[in-house]
Amino acid sequence: MADSTEQPPDGKPKLAVYKFSGCDGCQLSMLNLEDDLLDLVQAVEVAYFLEARRRELPPPYDIGLVEGSISTPEEEERIFQIRRDCRFLIAIGACATSGGIQALRNWADVEEYTRLVYPNPEYIKALETSTPIAAHVFVDFELRGCPINRNQLLEVVTALLAGRKPVIPTYSLCIECKRLGIPCRLVSSGQPCLGPITQAGCGAICPSMNRACYGCFGPMEMPNIEALGNRFGGLGYTSGETVRMLRSFNGYLEPFKQASDRYEQVDKDG
């Protein structure tokens, strides 16, 4: 990894923000820090962030934030240079940590997708799979979410600057619902909620709006997916429907991927 030997004139650590295949939502979360963003730019030099400023400072950088998945040959090559340029590399958001919604191609024929979507598919250069950053280079930390929690992003950057481990919860979303006094959508409404197997961090946005969790923060630590799948079956949902629930924002993360592959086989076997 690159050492941060070249510093701005004021000696502040240099921060770089990169975009790969994604929707820019995680970068917008950073910009939405508002007053906290002003404090952040006092602590670091934003050396590369095309969505926020034109000026670029050359590498090496102390902290690199990467949004988006590796989905094209150009991105596959570019991430190696970014890893060399950054002392610490942080993958932010579902796309960067799991392959994102575009990882649905990983269970399908990407050529068929491009043929159906684009009028001139021969111009599209895409990899067969959409993969997370960690599938290609070493990543120092992964921050989940679609989009990320802006306060969690601030915690990660602050922790790096302070030389400590970031404090990010790995327990399930159900804990957040309990703390906020939100009725369980699975128990009280019979909704197919992924909250019991999803990592906390969003603030229980969907359950607070009387909607089941979609799993946009990915699997919690040691999720009991089989038990939840049995519960879904008791509510009348088929194995195929469970597959579709798991294969969304974070469907290619191993716990969700393995479970969805098993349920898909059950669905095929009838």
Q: Please tally the β strands and state the result.
A: 5
Strand order of the largest sheet: 2-1-3-4-5
Number of domains: 2
**How much strand?**
5-15%
Helix content: 25-40%
Please report the number of helical segments: 12
Radius of gyration: 20 Å
Which stretches of 5+ consecutive residues score pLDDT under 50? 1-7
**Which whole number gives the mean pLDDT?**
93
The biggest beta sheet reads: 5 strands, parallel
User: Can you identify the CATH superfamily of the largest domain?
Assistant: NADH:ubiquinone oxidoreductase-like, 20kDa subunit
**CATH fold node name of the largest domain:** Rossmann fold
Essential attributes:
Rossmann fold; 2 domains; 12 helices; 5 strands; globular
Describe what this molecule looks like in 3D:
There is one protein chain. Helix content is 39%, strand content 10%. The protein is of the alpha/beta class and 270 residues long. The protein folds into two domains: 14-162, 3-Layer(aba) Sandwich (Rossmann fold); 173-269, no CATH class. Helix 11 runs antiparallel to helix 12. Residues 1-7 have low confidence and may be disordered.
